[in-house]
Specification:
7-stranded antiparallel β-sheet; 4% helix; 37% strand; globular; disordered N terminus
């Protein structure tokens, strides 16, 4: 049930800053058909000195994908982008190391997401992504998130047989128990898992958050915190990067 992917973790029960591995996939969610969440992609991060790892991401235009910064924290060589089709994962793009743009406030190393809330990245594909009936960009939010707002978590967390497939789950936003800007939180049985890093938090058809962290060793049907980077508070940086490269 485990792979080598990791999420930056906050141990919610003790409110201490910790990084741990977590279980795989969106818990208490369900499989999604390939024609749903047309922007959602799997990222295979190839490394120079270690095995590849998996993350998720969201297409925001022909050349750009938004994801989590911690997916690229060590010896990245390149990134291959996959999208689920009716019967398989299909490669739709590739990203060179030089085209990975990490938020300037992100600091790689052994620190929790509340110590470095810039866990967000933009990656530019070598060639434009070809859009189709089943591959489309997601719109970014225009308004800040609200407590109690309903949202859908989606990602490519790995399954028990180590095959990543898209899953989703519905949750509601709650007050973050941390004094840090730029974070969105949900506390629910629906939560993110390994391979869901960088995945989407969608509300009213728009991307409001990027999956960053969740918890481990919590029963699958018990409440657990998931933390996302707030897209609205990063719109200025996103626009600057997309228009500068």
């Amino acid at each position: 049930m485990y792979n080598q992917n990791y999420l930056l973790i906050i141990l919610f029960s003790c409110f201490v800053n910790t990084i741990i591995a977590i279980d795989s996939r969106v818990f208490d969610g369900q499989d999604i058909r390939f024609e749903v969440h047309k922007y959602l992609v799997q990222l295979k991060v190839h490394r120079r000195l270690s095995n590849p790892s998996l993350c998720s991401g969201s297409i925001i235009d022909h050349s750009w994908i938004i994801t989590a910064a911690h997916c690229f924290k060590t010896d990245v060589k390149r990134v291959t982008v996959f999208r689920q089709t009716e019967d398989r994962l299909r490669k739709i793009a590739q990203v060179d190391r030089s085209d990975i743009h990490i938020h300037p406030s992100f600091v790689s190393g052994d620190a929790s997401v509340i110590d470095k809330p810039g866990d967000i990245a933009l990656i530019k594909t070598k060639c434009p992504i070809k859009f189709s009936a089943y591959v489309q960009p997601v719109k970014l939010t225009k308004t800040p998130p609200q407590i109690g707002q309903s949202a859908v978590i989606a990602g490519y967390g790995a399954s028990e047989d180590y095959v990543a497939y898209p899953r989703e789950g519905t949750t509601k936003l709650t007050q973050c128990p941390y004094d840090a800007d730029g974070l969105i939180c949900s506390i629910d049985t629906v939560r993110a898992g390994s391979g869901d890093s960088g995945g989407s938090l969608i509300s009213r058809g728009r991307l409001i958050g990027v999956t960053s962290a969740s918890c481990k060793n919590v029963h699958i049907h018990k409440n657990c915190i998931t933390i996302y980077m707030d897209v609205f508070s990063n719109l200025e940086w996103i626009q600057k990067v997309v228009t500068s490269y």
